[in-house]
Design goal:
Number of helices: 13
Number of strands: 11
Oligomer: single chain
Distance between the termini: 41 Å
Structural class: alpha/beta
Strand order of the largest sheet: 1-4-5-7-6-8-9-10-11
Order of helices and strands: HEEEEEEHHEHEHEHHHHHHEHEH
Radius of gyration: 20 Å
Strand content: 15-25%
Shape: globular
Length: 411
């Protein structure tokens, strides 16, 4: 599978570049005294901290149910930040109460010259098991999201509090818009109200950022914030490599090197939407593939399912044309709601995964809705390299919004 191998090498190269950049910034700005080295929590599947409460308490979404200090690690080495895991009440796709977990990070010393500000960083969690959850891997220093920690650390070094949520929830409903948005928004609520973090509740200046799967989470949080969390106010949202249209992406990657992402997203959506009748829609081979992928993270199923075609797994000629599937895809296509906050979108023109035509359309939709959108199209690079190229602009946009500068627009 030569294309996948090249992609992995590119990811490793990008990781090395971004990690080096972040290490330089953080070493210069971080306090010299490291936070206390807390024991590394165990695997989420066997860790009582992650267990769903029974009975579930009657509390508002975003309420902190439990917390514990943790040590953040980069490549297994402790990072000098204050950090906690918080378990909080959220809401799944069907409106049922669930408990999610988020990680909160702060500089050891308070920021100089003002109140704390919050950045909600959405990782590309992209997995079908809680083994892929950022709260788990951030405490072990494994990748991913080690490459994303390289972008979180400059934010912490700049004095921001950073929260990153396990927004897929306890059942890892990857790609499900409502479940994802609720996980992000309630993670922000939890961080803002968590006393040790010292934030000012909903009045805390707050921004969101994410790339690829993290952009999916960031954009859906922005679209659903006005109806689900109207008390929240965001200074701005920076999102790159946006998976704006799942149908478009699935049709274009089916049978190619990224076909496993189509299979993985189908598993995640089927978990969130039982009307997708996998018993009837999958043949024996498909049921076996879905069962295997359902225990994996993206690094595994991208390789294992490369160049597979969905038609070989289904009892129908085209899964995307099944009425129930079409309804679910429509519900999970961006642009259905007017975002609550200004947006910075950065996008590779030749992105081979989060294709640019649906993102162009999404930007036009947001502009027509009256949203302030700054759109930066990057003419050279693929999905991985654009993440590196676009990061400085996204971070600068977020810093300006959190400093109170007016949001620019290219609409």
């Amino acid at each position: 599978m030569p294309t996948v191998s090249v992609d992995i090498r590119r990811k490793l190269s990008a990781l090395a570049v971004v990690t080096a950049m972040a290490a330089t910034v953080f070493t210069a700005a971080a306090p010299s005294a490291a936070a206390a080295d807390a024991p590394s929590p165990g695997n989420p599947a066997g860790d009582p901290f992650y267990a769903q409460p029974s009975p579930f308490p009657d509390v508002a979404p975003g309420t902190v149910l439990d917390s514990r200090p943790v040590t953040i690690r980069a490549l297994a080495l402790p990072v000098p930040v204050r950090a906690w895991q918080v378990k909080y009440r959220s809401t799944d796709t069907d409106g049922a109460a669930i408990a999610d977990v988020a990680t909160i990070m702060q500089p050891v010393n308070p920021p100089a010259g003002g109140a704390r500000k919050l950045v909600s960083y959405q990782t590309a969690q992209d997995g079908l098991t809680t083994d892929c959850a950022p709260s788990s891997v951030l405490t072990t220093g494994t990748a991913p999201p080690a490459e994303e920690l390289a972008l979180m650390l400059p934010l912490v070094a700049a004095g921001y509090t950073v929260v990153t949520a396990d927004y897929e929830g306890p059942d890892s409903e990857w790609a499900a818009a409502a479940n994802t948005a609720h996980g992000v928004l309630d993670g922000i609520r939890a961080a803002q109200s968590f006393p040790p973090a010292g934030l000012a509740g909903p009045s805390t200046p707050t921004g969101l950022i994410g790339y690829s799967g993290g952009a999916l989470a960031s954009e859906w949080a922005n679209e659903l914030q006005p109806q689900y969390a109207p008390e929240l106010r965001f200074a701005g949202v920076a999102a790159g490599g946006v998976p704006a249209d799942l149908d478009y992406i699935a049709r274009h990657i089916d049978g190619g090197p990224f076909a496993g992402i189509y299979v993985g997203a189908a598993v995640g959506l089927a978990r969130a939407y039982p009307e997708i009748d996998t018993d009837a829609l999958l043949n024996a081979r498909g049921k076996q593939a879905f069962a295997e992928v359902g225990k994996q993270c993206i690094a595994q199923f991208t390789v294992g399912q490369a160049f597979r075609r969905m038609r070989d797994y289904t009892t129908v000629p085209q899964l995307l044309d099944v009425p129930a599937v079409k309804r679910v895809i429509a519900e999970n296509t961006m642009g259905r709601f007017k975002p609550g906050s200004p947006v910075y979108v950065y996008q590779g023109v030749f992105d081979e995964l989060a294709f640019s035509p649906p993102v162009d359309k999404l930007v036009r939709t947001y502009c027509a809705q009256g949203v302030s959108v700054q759109y930066h199209r990057i003419p050279i690079g693929d999905h991985v390299t654009v993440a590196v190229q676009g990061a400085p602009g996204a971070l600068a946009y977020l810093a300006d919004r959190l400093a109170g500068k007016p949001a620019p627009s290219t609409c």
